[in-house]
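Handout, tutorial session.
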Amino acid sequence: MAENIEKVKCLIIGSGPAGYTAAVYAARANLDPILYTGSEPGGQLMITTDVENYPGYPEGIMGPQMMDDFRKQAERFGTDIRYEMITKVDFTGPIHKAWTEAGAEIHADTIVISTGASAKWLGLESEQQLMNKGVSACAVCDGFFYRGKEVAVVGGGDTAAEEALYLSKLCPQVHLLVRRDEMRASAIMQERVLKTENIIVHWNTETKEIQGDDSVESVKVFNNKTNEESVIDVKGFFVAIGHKPNTDIFKDWIDLDDTGYIITKGKSTQTNREGVFASGDAQDNIYRQAVTAAGTGCMAALDAERYLTEKGII
């Protein structure tokens, strides 16, 4: 084997709760894992402020601090963490190949994919300025902070409907901003939204600007049917126009669903390629929580260990 090829038992692609948890379990099982963090070490939690729904942190914790704790724990057991991206893979044979952005080639007996998913944003300057200051892409994560306050949700699909319904239990009024004159959400979700008294649906409505200095104060919207602008007073603004799984480099090698999420077999993390396992938001388009991502990271490492044992590699 060429000198510039690195051979490993377990390669973890991506960080965040799934990747770091997989690393903890793989390292403790003596799989000597190497973890490539990708372009955003720590994943979406690095742009999250207060995390209050992860068990074990009774006072809550800042997202970046929590990910730093995860990283330190993975390193404590010997995980080799590398701050670089994997840009290409080849899953043709039993030995799985991956290449880094610097051109290094890695041959791995098992691979755990934990590349996550990225929230889609509207692309407004004010949206970025008020991120974590009233602008969020996760009602389950952040809705608690807006109890008793009016909020807005933008989107017309099932995700937006679910976010609006969740927030309606916490907030006196939820403004659902739908760009068209109909929703893309399933019939049952639309029915639930329309039956909920404190959800106001604003049809044909586009967001022009989220207003506020250090926190969200209101949102300026435009009705594309009447060509009228108006301002809605809200304290929270939730973007629910979907997520994009970070799985593009795997599309030629493993089975993905119509929206790019990795398909796993049954209750396992096994993909359609032997020895390749998927965890976290790259394969979860339903829950998308730090605690569920960590759980599947654990599962992926255990699945990898079993696979290596069955093959007689360890």
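The second record follows below. Compare its token runs with those of the first.
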Amino acid sequence: MARDEDLDETSADEELEEEGEREETDDEGGEDDLEFGSDEPLIEGDGDEFEGGEEGDEDSPVKAPVAKRRVGVLRNIPMIEGVAKAKLDKPEFAKEVFTKLSAKFPDAKPKKYELRASFLKHELVDHSKFGMGFVVEVLSPNKVEVIFKDGLRKLVQNR
């Protein structure tokens, strides 16, 4: 003979199965049932385990652990003309950015680099040792970052 507790667990399992079937049919064409101020969580589960189908199966929910979810999050990475600033120490990336800036500002007149001179962003600088470069950032009243064909350099200004 079954106890009352066993009956309650069975009926709860059946209700969950019915809700799961209802959710599948709602996803096909209905609107979300969430309302403003609803207590229903946007992401179900605690995220401790992977659930659902295989890779590439868009219909099955796959929940990653919280630490793994943050791996793919984009951060505020400093970029210059679509290239990460950290990569500009390599000549191939620096040359790419220099070429993009040259195309973007074809009429830029080079300004001779001197310690006493003051530079603005996107000005073309003619340095005696490094050659032509574009000011990509004014760091302070006394420092600028300039992209040359061989890399990114910090230069002194207003001295």
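Points raised in discussion: The chain has two domains: 4-26+33-72, 79-156.
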